[in-house]
Each structure stands twice: as structure tokens, then as C-alpha cells.
Write a structure and sequence with these properties.
Wheat Germ Agglutinin (Isolectin 2), domain 1, 33% helix, binds zinc ion, alpha+beta, 190 residues, elongated
Length: 190
């Protein structure tokens, strides 16, 4: 339990405050890492984590697992779901951890009228098995998405900008970035 409180404090500092998502995300990440035989709070080069939601819970998962976007060890999937998948890239072993409480109600884990202190206290003493479902899964990771040196670097035939990590598309024998090839999340104004 002391480990939980310490990791919770760190996750709260990273996130800006300790909210319900941080309380649950810290517990979820500890549960997931322990299942993988890894040490929560310590960086593990074998670990890649897929988070399924861009909300508070994922900040706690990032903090506890010490994964990062820049190290290619954290993959935000944006499914809008309260779950995360832990992959050991050495062994291929992978588990998906689902927050049961968040799926019981509409969104949050807090009991009605429960303060954040009461929630923390309850989650700290509840075994992870009661809070989370674990699914054994298989995850295929493109070599371009693994940590390490870049495997593919091309220049887009449309805009001339560099595209890393095999994220380009080929049309008519030429390489294009996603913006030029397909849809873009932005529109140039001039
Ligand atoms: Zn929050
Ligand atoms: Zn382009």
C-alpha cells in the first residue's frame, strides 16, 4: 500500500492534481506491471503500453510505467475506453487491463458522495483483481513503431517535408505524407 501511495503522489504531481482518474490509473498501471513481472515506477525497456483514452487515467499510467511518446514506448490509441495494454517486446506477452468500475457506471469510479480521500483509501486497500479485468491478448507491433533507431525516412513528394518511421504512403511510385496523401487534421489558410 505504501508503494501505491508513493506512486499516486508522483502521478498526481505529473498530472497537476490527484483526481479519480489518477487514483484508478495508478492502481491499474501497478496491477498491469506486476502481472508482467515488472516493477511499477521503474522504467523497463521491454515494456510498451497502449492507452485507450486521452483522459486523466492515462497520465497516471504514463507516470507509473515510465513510458513516453518520445521513446516510442507509449502508444495513445484514442478509443475513448478505460483500458490499457501492456506488451513485453522481448517475449511478445501482452495483457489488456480493463477498469471494471468505470464500465459499471457511466464514467467515473467514485461512489456517490465519496471524497477523493475516501476513494484513495478504498482503492489502496482493494486487491487489483477486484478492480480490473485482465485479458491475454496478442499485439502486432510494426518494426517502425518499436523504440530504437529510425528504420525508414523519406521526403514527401507533395510538401517536401520529412516523414519518419514508415508513416508515408506510396502512390504512383512516389512517397507522400499523410496530409498530402489523404485527409489532414489541418487546413492551410494561405
Ligand atoms: Zn484528472
Ligand atoms: Zn506532404
Amino acid at each position: 500500500m505504501s508503494d501505491y501511495m508513493e506512486l499516486l503522489k508522483k502521478a498526481g504531481e505529473f498530472h497537476g492534481d490527484i483526481c479519480g482518474g489518477i487514483v484508478m490509473g495508478t492502481k491499474l498501471a501497478i496491477h498491469g506491471m506486476e502481472h508482467m513481472g515488472m516493477t511499477p515506477g521503474e522504467k523497463d525497456k521491454r515494456l510498451i503500453v497502449f492507452t485507450e483514452i486521452d483522459r486523466c487515467i492515462s497520465d497516471a499510467i504514463l507516470s507509473v510505467t515510465r513510458t513516453s511518446l518520445g521513446k516510442k514506448s507509449l502508444k495513445p490509441m484514442g478509443y475513448g475506453k478505460f483500458a490499457a495494454t501492456f506488451v513485453n517486446i522481448d517475449t511478445g506477452e501482452a495483457i489488456r487491463v480493463v477498469d471494471l468500475g468505470a464500465n459499471k457506471k457511466d464514467s467515473e469510479d467514485e461512489e456517490p458522495g465519496e471524497s477523493i480521500e475516501e476513494l484513495t483509501e478504498r482503492i489502496a486497500r482493494t486487491p487489483g483483481e477486484e478492480l480490473f479485468k485482465i485479458q491475454k491478448v496478442s499485439v502486432k507491433i510494426d518494426p517502425n513503431d518499436l523504440p530504437g533507431k529510425p528504420l525508414e525516412i523519406v521526403k514527401c513528394a507533395g510538401c517536401g517535408e520529412v516523414v519518419m518511421d514508415g508513416k508515408h504512403h506510396i502512390r504512383g511510385g512516389r512517397a507522400y505524407c499523410t496530409s498530402c496523401f489523404d485527409k489532414s487534421y489541418y487546413q492551410l489558410l494561405e
